[in-house]
Amino acid sequence: MLSVVTARREVSTARAVAEAELDGSVAALSGVHRAAGLAQRGEYVAARCLLVSTQRLLQRAMSGAAQQRDYLSFVVQAEKLDGFMREAQAQEGVFGKTASCDARRLTRDDEAATSILKMKAVTSTAFHARI
Questions:
Q1: What's the predicted TM-score (pTM) here?
Q2: Longest Cα separation, the chain
Q3: Which region, left, alpha or beta, applies to residue 36 given φ > 0 means left and ψ of -120 to 50 means alpha?
Q4: Buried (b) or exposed (e) across 29-52, using 16+ Cβ within 10 A?
Q5: Which of 16, 91, 107, 130 has the largest CB neighbor count within 10 A?
């Protein structure tokens, strides 16, 4: 089931105003989902840059307990994704983009693909569970 709610939002060109009204959960989940999508396509540098940018945005907007919770949840999820990407970049440096097909490499790739798919679809509940 899909519910769609349409609401008109006031637009601001002032960064401070926009960041003061930021919903940390939405920004954090969006950052993780988008970075996982980039990682799935092998765009690790862009994905890692997006994670850093999202983290900085959350840091600037952090003003209360809810924003701190969102920030910590983001850091936990982003670190999992970033760890995979660091490993994948290192493997590409050693094996190249078209690595050999030994059984150990295939198993690792399957595990990595599964992890990325989970990150792309992480729910708000799982996001805040910090698992």
A1: 0.74
A2: 55
A3: alpha
A4: bebbebbbebbeeeebeebbebbe
A5: 91
Q: What is the pLDDT of residues 56-101, one digit of tens each?
A: 999 999 888 989 999 999 999 999 899 888 888 887 777 776 544 4
- Helix extents (H) in 1-131: 15-20, 24-40, 44-61, 65-95, 103-120, 124-129
Of 115, 18, 79, the residue nearest 10 (C-alpha)? 18
Measured between alpha carbons, how far is residue 29 from residues 85, 98, 99, 129 in Å?
18, 31, 32, 13
* Residue 117 contacts residue 37 (beta carbons within 8 Å): no
